[in-house]
Predict the structure.
Amino acid sequence: MPCLYTFSSPPRTIHSRCRSPIDQHGTTIPPMQYVNIMYDRRVVRGNTYAQALMPKQEIKKIVTRRRKIKYIPPTTPLPVEGRQHIRVQTELYLEELSDRIIVSDVSNQTDNLLDRPATPLFIPAKSGKDVDTQILEGELFDFDIEVKPILEVMVGKIIEQSLLEVSQEEELATFRAQQRAFEELRNAELAEAQRLEEQERRRREEKERRLKQQREVIQKEKETVEKIAAQTFAKHYLADLITSVYSRLWNGGYFYDPVERDVETKFMPWLMKEVDQAMYRPILGRKTLDMLIHEVVQRRLQAPPVEAPVEALVEAPAEKE
């Protein structure tokens, strides 16, 4: 294939106009005489995402320099006495200050990629000459002849559709009649079932009522038999018990003569009380006399001796009696 372009001048090497690179020791690297970038030290080899490693001495220098620099953030001067600082907005437009930043999501829909348009149909270039064909009247289309089969088909379809609709209506009427007959039969059967259920319910209630009456009769008969047996047993048991009870009560003093009990409980205690009082009065007089005599004797013993006549001494015992 012949070449479509030519060089105005032959290719030549272009020297770099950038400044000469400097190595890690600070010396200037002379410009390279070759142009292969694989030998250029400024080209990173390997993974381009990896970070270029620095020499250890350079890292130590940077760390030492950063440690020496002490960052002092700018501060606001202290307020004067009696005042305090307040956060104030200095923007042209006021904004609401909040600890929580309001975040909203925004989406964007890109246009769909347009498909490649269809390849146009290949139409070969026309060759040859155009000619005409003569068509006489009636050779291509006769309406009366061509429309006849179409009309026959349309009329046949309409008649067929009408017959289908009539048959469907008759079938629906038959279905409705069958449904009415089925509903009447079902209602009659339902009424008969309800009548039978009601009859069975009445029979069941009557049976339960009769069973309840029978159980009550049996229970009453059982209670009557038990009462008769208990009464008979009580009679046989109490036949000899009454005599023994009466004898024990008589011996215990529960049966008594009212006059005798009145004499024992009322008259005898009163009599004993009166006797005690009658006997206590002379005893009380004697005790009083003894106390007086004792007191007189004590006084006479304590008093100086006095000659008393003999008659007084003789009469003293008589008074005592």
In short: The radius of gyration is 77 Å. The CA atoms of residues 191 and 197 lie 10 Å apart.
